[in-house]
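Same chain as my last thread, 491 residues:
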Amino acid sequence: LVVTSGSNLTGGLDVTADVAGDNSVGVYSAGSLAMNSANISAYDSGVNFFTDGGTISVGNNGGTSTVVAGTGANKGSLLFYTPSGNILLNGPVNATVEGGTKAATRATAFYYTGGGTLGSLGTYTQLNPTNVATWARNSFGNGSTSTLGNLNLTMNQDSRLFLTEKVNMDLSNTSVSNLFSGLSASERPNITGAGSYRTFMLYHSHLNVDQAVDLDNANNEYNLMEISSSSITNNNTITGTKTGQIAMAQENDTTPKSVVTLANNGTINLSGLNSAGIYTKNGIINNTNAITVGNSSSGIYALNNTEISNTGSITTGGSSTGIYYSDVEKDNAGNITTVNNTTTGLANAGSITLNGDDSVGLTYEPGNITGSVTFENSSTGSITSTGDKNVGMFAKLAQNGVSYNTVNNGNITLGNSASMSNPNVAMYTNATSTGTNPLQNAGDITVGNNSVGMYGFEENSSGNITVGNGSIGLYSKNGNVDVSGSITTGS
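reply #2:
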């Protein structure tokens, strides 16, 4: 049913419709439409109610409506789309929102779009109980009172309540009880299905984690959300004990990089295997506080020119990496799928502690270098380990063989190794020739017995290197070694 701009359709109209597919709408109004009842089912990206500057009134003569927002093979449907105009629910509307097996196929009840400049997080619309109340009264009322009290909303397993864009939101406001708290009891929708549905999909938005998160709890507010190509700031605590958990993870689908800015100002503590504190692709990562992960994990895992700032602390277990940066994307079998151009370096200004063996403090894996990049442990940066077979800085060869500098201006301290056949190495590169990955030490390197300070093809040390018994200060396979600093050896 379509009512165009300037048109009016009133009376005791009862509408029954099934719609499906892109651009399919059950009821559309750019004018004025009044109905007794609207029994509409929408599937596969269809929309049940769409106001485009007009008004839709349902239940004017006491009618009861039954509505289904369904799923689809490729895309779920949307119950209410109100970019402009309003929908008045003057009688009971019994609506069911169906779930999907993945984000794209879930049906959604409400769509809310904010404003601001993409990537400028402070300009996004604040979505809090006050603003939700204003939106509800304007989009589903007369500006002063909401008619959502007549909506009986059944949220099926894996359905979605809100899809939002360009909003700033606190995690504490995502629960339904807080979200609609700005409305009186008679103005709020009656929602059933608590704990079984997704509360929000935040898209090109920002989430502030302002309360503790338990990743092990499936019904935690954080786990009930979907977040896509958005920013997250942790100002509290995120914990988990299960395998494969990630505290914050986002991939950028647009520009600028700041659209996806993941910041940890709180505490992240994950003890399960194969976990990551922060994962980002083509975004920005800022860690100012503490990240702790267990074995076979990464404190920070970054792909495709993600900019990383670590001024906090990262602690790992064995077989782990403090910060892993790569512009070489691989599938689960380790096969290269994408080689990105590299224009971004990596600098660590915080502390990295490796608790265990077979770990790496910093790994830098460029793709095809197209500019000048540097891999650095900064003057305030420290990498520490007492385990065996660990590497402080691992500089990988660029895919196109272009040279870059690997520099230690901070402190790298590694413990004893059992054997020189597989030693601790403070600075290491897998370069196979000179002129590719020169290693430079202007800071302090200390390694224990049966260990190596610097291992590569060409090395320069103006700083201090201290090695234990049976150890090597600098090992060059073929290139020049320039030493203007100090080297202290064991016996």
